[in-house]
Amino acid sequence: MPVRTTTEADGVLPAGVTVFDDRYPGVANLDSALLRALRAAAADAARDGVEFRVNSGWRSPAYQNQLLREAVTKYGSAAEAARWVATADTSAHVAGHAVDIGRFDATAWLARYGARYGLCQIYRNEPWHYELRPEAVRHGRPPLYPDPTHDPRMQP
Fold first, then answer.
1. Where is the D-alanyl-D-alanine carboxypeptidase-like core domain (predicted)?
2. SS3 42
């Protein structure tokens, strides 16, 4: 069986893509509420000289499966890979509910101000991974899971 190469149509993003780059499915296919919150936060962050670049957003199941296979190879086991990459069935990226933000200044800005927009880091081991938690606007960000293996949504 030939190996399928993932492309921009699967959510692969070139370097330098921002939350405003709708021409890429990795951005355009994000949940609309998440994208609105990201864009509002990015506009405010820009006033502080910070630009949000998207390393990864929406992903096709094929792309997510490829990332998981690569993680198993890198980390040596499925159990260890699960600390970093979800299955296509459980991934918030495949559902369009997660975004990985690049650049330290952007993740530092989000760590400080993201809850004002409902944007929250979910996993302690992934400071780049953000999801929308609207309740955070009123109640602050929820406690972090150590890694995805502690997230009840990732359980079979």
1. 29-130
2. helix
